[in-house]
Amino acid sequence: MTVTQAEQAEPAVIEEEAGRLEWIDPLADFNPPDDPNEKDTNAVIIDPYNHRKKRDTGDSTQPDPGLIASAEAIGIQTPPILRPQVGDHEGQLGVVAGQRRMKAARIAAERAVAANRPYRKVRVIIRDDLKGADDEVLVASMAENVHRRAASPEDDLETAQQLTLLVGAKRVPKARKAQLAAAIGRTPEELDVAAKVAKLSPEALDELWECDVELDWVEQADYDAVRDVPNALMKLEQAKRKDQAEGNTKRGAWRQAMQALRAEQAKAERIAKMRAELAEKMIPVVNWPYRWEYTSARPLDELVSAIGRPLTEAGHNETCEGHAAAFDPADGEVVWVCTDYKKHGHRLAGAPDPDDTHSPEADEKAAAEREAAREEARRVKTNNAAWRTAREVRQAFIVDMCQDKGEAPADVKDLVLTAILTGRYTYTHYVTADSGSLLAMFLKSEKLRHTPADEVAKLVKRTGAKRYWWLLFAHVAGMYEFEHMTDEAWRGKKDEFGRRKPIEPQTVEWLNFLRKHGYSLSEVEEETLATAQQQADEEAKRVAERAERDARWRRERAEADDTKQEAEDSQPDEDGEPGDQTDAGPAEDEPEDTADEPEDGTRADDGEQSAAEDE
After folding, report:
1. Picking from 259-273, 390-404, 435-449, 535-549, which range would have the lowest pLDDT averaged per residue?
2. What is the C-alpha separation between 545 and 391, in angstroms, rounded?
3. Which one-letter DSSP state was computed for residue 501?
4. Has residue 536 got a pLDDT over 90?
5. Which residues pair with 12 in a beta bridge?
6. Is residue 107 a part of any domain in this protein?
7. pTM value surpassing 0.70
8. 559 within some domain
9. Which of 183, 362, 516, 565 measures 20 to 30 Å from 42, CA to CA?
C-alpha cells in the first residue's frame, strides 16, 4: 500500500519549559559567602547542584575583569537560570547556570554605589519545573559548561574591527566609545588597534598563543611592531609579569621594555644601513670580539704608526690593507680597526718602544689597564644610551600625571612648595628653549614652548582652580628633568676641576617620587639609585670614621694632658716636699699667713711656740 505525502505523519515538536522572567536585585538578593560551608541566607543562592564549584586552586567561579566591565557598561545580557529550592533552603532561589554573571552584576553594583551612580538589576529565568529535580539540574549545569566553546581570537578581532569602523564613522563620543569597549571586555585603546591586530601573521599569532601570560590587543600590537628584535617576546613577557606583580595598571615595565626594544630595533636598522654603505665602499666588517687582546685586531684610536703618530680613518684606509670596520654593540656606531696591527707595522698607543727593555709583567699590566679603560668606556656608552631611552618613558609618564583632572595629592603640593620656597633652581637658567619645551610637553601645549607670558596667562585663565597645582607641578617637573636628569646624572656630574661628583640627591629624590606615583624604573635608573645609596653609605662610613678619629684624638690628647699634669704635680718643690702640697694650700698645722716669715727661713713664732710647749 502506498502512503501519500498528505497521509505521512507530522513530525513531533516538543515544547520545553521556558520558565518565567523576573528581576533580581544583585545587592539586596545575592551575596554568596566566601566560605562554601557557611549557610547562605540570601534570597538567591548558588544551587547546591551547580556544576561549577569554588576550589582552593583553579577557581573558575569568579568573574574576570572583562565580564565585570561588560556588566558595568551594558548589564547582564544573557539571563541566568534559577530554580526554587527545597529542604533547608525552602523559599530561596538557586542559580543553576550563570553564577559568574550574577557575581559580576553584584561587583558592578557595588562599584556603582561607591561612585554614587545607579546600578542595574539582573533579569533571570526561573524554572519552577526544576524544583526538586536535582539530577536534571546537575546535567543541565554541566552541559552548559562542557559544551560551551569560546569564539576564536580571529572572530573577536574581526568583530572589534567592525565595531571600530562603526564608532569612527559615527564619531561616537569618548564616553560612549569607552562604554562600547567595556561591553566586550576591552578598552578604548584596544579598539583603536583592533584593525592592526587583525592583520597579524599566522606566525605571530602562533607565538602569542605560546605565551605564558595573556597579552591584550594593545600589547599584541606592540609585540608585532618589534617582533624582529631578538628575544622580544621573552622580554615583554617578563615586563608583563613585573607589572602584574607590582599591580602597575599603567604598563610601567611594559613601556620601559618596549622603548628599549624600539631602541634596539633602531640600532639594528642603523647597522644594516651602514653595512650596506660599507659594502659599496668595499670596506670589510669584522665582528666585535669579546676581548680585543684575544685577537690580532685593534681599534685605530688605540694604535699609532711605527714612528708614533696617531692613525686616522682616512689615512689608514688609503695606506693599510688591514683597514676594516666593526660595530660597537653598546651603541651600534662604527669603530675603525686594523685587522692585524703587528703585521702592518702599527703599535699600541702608550706601549713601550720595541727597542726598549721591558718586562712581560709590565706588558700585561698595560694590557689590563687598556681593557679596563675600554670596558669602562663601553659601560658609559651603554648606560648613556639606556638613560636617554628611559628619559622618553619617564617624561611620557610625567605627561600623564600632568593631565590629571582631580586634586593633586599632598606630596605633589609638598614637592612644589619645597622646590619653589628653597630656590632649588635658577629661574634665568631654567626658562630656556629646552626647559620651555619640557613645560609645553608636560602640559600638551606647543604654545608654551618658549613660555611667553601671554600664553601662560591664557592657560591659567582657562584652567580650573583645582588643577593649579598640576600646572605648578609641570613647572617643577621641568626643572628636575632639565637640571638633575641630564645625560651624566646616572653617574654624577663633574665639578669645575673635572672630578666626578656623587650622584645628586635631587636625582634620587625625583626618581623615588615618580616611583611612588606608579612609575616603573628602568634598569639604569634602578642602578642609579643603588649606586647613590652605596655612595651615601660610604660617605656615612667616612663621616663616622672621621668622627671616631677626632674623638680618639681628643681622648688621647686629654690623657696626655692629664699625664703631663700628674708628672708636673709629682715633682718636689724647693723644700723637698711634693709640689702638689704647695698647690694644695697651707697645711692644717700651719698658719695661713706667712707674710712675716724671715728671709733665713726661721719662723717668727718659734719662740712663742717653744714657750707654750715648756708650759
Report:
1. 435-449
2. 38
3. P
4. yes
5. none
6. yes
7. no
8. no
9. 183
d(CA 193, CA 160): 9
Per DSSP, the three-state class of 559 is: helix
The residue range of the domain holding 316 is 268-378
Q: Which DSSP letter does residue 601 get?
A: S
Other CB atoms within 10 A of residue 242 CB: 16
Residue 47 C-alpha cell reads as 544551587
Query: Which three cell numbers mark 19?
Result: 520558565
- Mean predicted lDDT score pLDDT of the chain: 81
Rounded Cα gap, residues 418 and 402, in angstroms: 18
Residue 272: the pLDDT is 95
Q: Which residues, 6+ apart, have CB-to-CB distance to 518 below 8 Å?
A: 248, 249, 250, 252, 397
Cβ within 8 Å of residue 140, ≥6 positions away: 81, 96, 97, 130
- What is d(CA 521, CA 530) in angstroms, rounded to the nearest whole number? 12
| 137, 159: one domain | no
Of 471, 501, 536, the residue at which a domain comes to its end is 536
Alpha-carbon gap, residue 303 to 311, rounded angstroms: 7
Q: What is the pLDDT of residues 240-298, one digit of tens each?
A: 999 999 888 889 999 999 999 999 999 999 999 999 999 999 999 999 998 888 899 99
Same domain, 402 and 531: yes
Q: Give the C-alpha separation, 115 to 119, whole Å.
A: 10
- Indicate whether 389 and 495 sit together in one domain: yes
- Whether residues 525 and 391 share a domain: the answer is yes
Looking at the DSSP bridge assignments, the partners of residue 46 are 95
Question: Which residues sit opposite 21 in a β-bridge?
Answer: 125
For residues 299-325, give the mean pLDDT: 93
Task: Examine the domain organization and report whether 368 and 301 are in the same domain.
Answer: yes
Asked if residue 525 and residue 386 are part of one domain, the reply reads yes
From 507, 536, 565, give the residue that closes a domain.
536
Q: CA-to-CA distance for 399 and 473, rounded, in angstroms?
A: 11
CA-based R_g, the chain, Å? 42
Q: Please check the confidence at residue 10 and state whether its pLDDT lies above 90.
A: no
Query: Which amino acid would we find at residue 362?
Result: A
CA-nearest of 220, 190, 194, 187 to 205 is 220
Identify which of 186, 167, 192, 166 has the alpha carbon closest to the alpha carbon of residue 177: 167
Asked if the model's pLDDT at residue 171 lies above 60, the reply is yes
Cell representation of residue 231? 628575544
Q: What SS3 state is found at 82?
A: strand
Question: Is there a single domain that holds both residue 481 and residue 453?
Answer: yes
State the residue for C-alpha cell 640627591: 505
Residue 244 sits in the same domain as residue 312? no
Query: Looking at the domain assignment, is residue 492 inside a domain?
Result: yes
Task: Give residue 166's pLDDT.
Answer: 64
* 312 located within any domain: yes
Q: Are 75 and 118 in contact (CB under 8 A)?
A: no
Total domains in the fold of the chain: 4
User: Which one, of 426, 462, 423, lies nearest residue 445 by Cα?
Assistant: 462
Cell of 454: 601671554
Q: Which three cell numbers stand for residue 77?
A: 545580557
Q: Is 30 helix (H, G, I), strand (E, B) or coil?
A: strand
